[in-house]
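Minimal example, chain plus NAP.
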Amino acid sequence: MSITGEAIIGGAQERGAGGSFKAWDPSRREYLEPAFHMVTPDQIDRACRLAGEAFDTFRATSDQERAQFLDTVAEQILAIGDELIERAMAESGLPRVRLEGERMRTVNQLRMFGALLREGSWADARLDTPLPERTPPRPDLRMRLIGLGPVAVFAASNFPLAFSVAGGDTASAFAAGCPVVLKAHSAHPGTSELVARAVTKAVQLCALPAGVFTLLTGTGNGIGQALVGHPAIQAVGFTGSRSGGTALMAVAAARKQPIPVYAEMSSINPVFLMPNALENRAEEIGKHFAASLTLGVGQFCTNPGLVLAVDGPGLSTFCKAALDALHATQAAVMLNQNIADSYRKGVDALANNAAITTLARLEHEEGKGAAALFRVSAEEFLTRHELHEEVFGPASVLVVCQNLGQLHEVAEVLEGQLTATLQIDPEDYADAKALLPVLERKVGRILANGYPTGVEVSTAMVHGGPFPSTADGRSTSVGTGAISRFLRPVCYQNMPAELLPEVLRDGNPLGTWRRRDGALTKE
Ligand code: NAP
């Protein structure tokens, strides 16, 4: 397969005429061929209208048919072969082993949503038996979930496969029966084109309407804003910066018909070193914390950007172990120049902050990210909000508290987070129990004695959290729960049997779990 640089792949496929740009190879520090055409406003409009037209046909497909489609997308991605890995390596600077793992994760994610559809209970079917003798009589009520409509998905820069063209947002939208109009990330347009061709091939092989999927290529805020503002679009999935996410939330809210935005934006993922764990295991914790901080050059939304500890036995051992481990790392290529520049600015700002002590700052190299660790007192942290913001990359701030009361105070002032981690030994359980209600209010996932990087794709996973970690903390963007973002309930009252959707019919023809008068049953 060769990359053509077309502005649009999929439903509204045609050559773009809105200018062009080239992808950047962050390792070799050179532009890659070919140039990519940019979408025009007319093409964005056409892609969205086609998605709107495809919606009813797509959502009328059976769960089995959509599962087959998701499996076919997975097969077609694998069929691209090594070209996909090579191009993703060139465009992202990520190593082969990471990208091969990410490809498997992408494929398994698609198959996981296929399995969810085959199991069937995602539709949350509910049937309330009519009570004609009751005063007032209760009607026959039946409820199921349906897709929201076309979804605009913004691919993430830091997962060029698993959170990009056929990543979790796209897979969950497809599973819900929603067409996808995808804004490719301008940092990996060739990778995006290859995957988009695989998705388009799957659309054709499964005889689905072309508007089920369209990829838009280009760069500049106008594309995303036109996409989110388009009347056919009914929901948004986004992973990226806080400024980008909040700008798109504002566009969605200002529409004649406002729509939900599921934006995953910024999180500093606090790690709490509880006193006994720190006293007993400081060296081991310091070493593993440094490994988590520098994994993937810190370019994970779950990167541990904040560590909190009470001053006392173990803290200096923790610092020494962490610093030794950080000094053994080297600056490494970041995803793109923009991210490398933002990281450098963020680290400069921390280093120049009068309240901060620099514990480690490895030597900077152009386009690369080098580890950094800073220290601040809880008193200063409590009043300096600039220290609460994400610095995307391998940098973290250690907040030193005088006592556990102050540690609670710091936890209370934190913004919403994707994760919080507790390093605890059994003697810490009572203190951890007192902290848990605060953490439950602030974060989407609470870990004990682990590290936040590494997000399992599964049924119980929550990759979400209160603002600004996400735009809407009632959901997850990883795991089967991600489908709920693109669904809404419809109730059918006294509907003739012939007009009911299959999943709500008497006799349960699909054999799925349903709630009859509140109780789960397959009858
Ligand atoms: P980004 O700048 O927010 O871009 C993400 C996508 O949104 C791109 O397609 C971009 O278009 C578009 N976009 C950005 N701002 C927009 C606006 N105001 N209106 C309309 N569309 C807009 O994110 P990024 O490029 O991935 O990385 C930049 C920073 O985001 C990083 O330094 C980091 O701080 C943060 N980030 C966070 C996470 C996380 O998971 N928390 C992940 C990745 C990045 P273009 O293609 O034209 O740029």
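The chain is about 40% helix and 20% strand. The first helix runs from residue 41 to 59.
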